[in-house]
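Field reference: "sequence" (input) and "structure" (output). Example, Phosphatase PAP2 family protein:
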Amino acid sequence: MGYISDVSSYKFGIYYDVVDGYKDLRGNHPDVINENDEKAVQINNAAEKTPERVKQAQQDAVAPKQGVLNAVSDSLGPEARKALRESLKEHRLPKTEFLLGHGYFARAGGLASSTFAEKQIFHVQRPVVKMPDRIHKYPMEGTDIYHVKGQPSYPSGHANQASWITACLAMMLPEMGSQILDRGAISGESRVILGVHAPLDVIAGRMSGQAAAADRWNDPHMREALTQAGAELRAELEWRTGKSIEQLAAENPKSAKDSVSH
């Protein structure tokens, strides 16, 4: 089934217009670009002192293939997180999985919000490529999380995907919205920690992801699909935990950073 929001509401059917400010920065504000590079180095290098955060960044790196929904379940609090992961494992959430699960094949995503076209237009080098002598690598055993270094950097696809998925999930569970959105931001920060993106890449990924989520919600048919998935998810979490969503939200940590599993 096709949805009108499978094509961006912006020009050319993609999200170039949302992130085209980089063109002006690169052409007229080299000081901002330099600061962006320096901030990327600073965040990446400082991560050596926080090995648990590096481990989380590594896990976030593989989340788009394994399922961002499972990864961001951290933000729901211990009981709801456990319930969601068990439900996904047992495939008891077909509507939710169809829209937000299955990695890159999540139905509420798509080519328009993939950042593929935008990356090719701007063709920005990743920090690990642009500054190889200054960026520290944090390799992950069994997986090459730096295979992306030959691909353009701006905007961040990981940040984009985490942004639109957490935005849609927050629409389904508004009582937990702030925690869920916070977890999406953490996923973007993970990319800077690994040295595969600079802050502006992540900011642009979030911007395009939010725009994609807005397009989905403004599409009546997709909004109905998300609403049905939300009802499915809420009922499942309440059944598994024996608590209302309001109760589960009240038990949530103050910050998603407190609930991220390492």
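Residues 10-258 form a domain with the Vanadium-containing Chloroperoxidase; domain 1 fold (CATH 1.20.144).
DSSP finds 14 helices and no strands in the chain.
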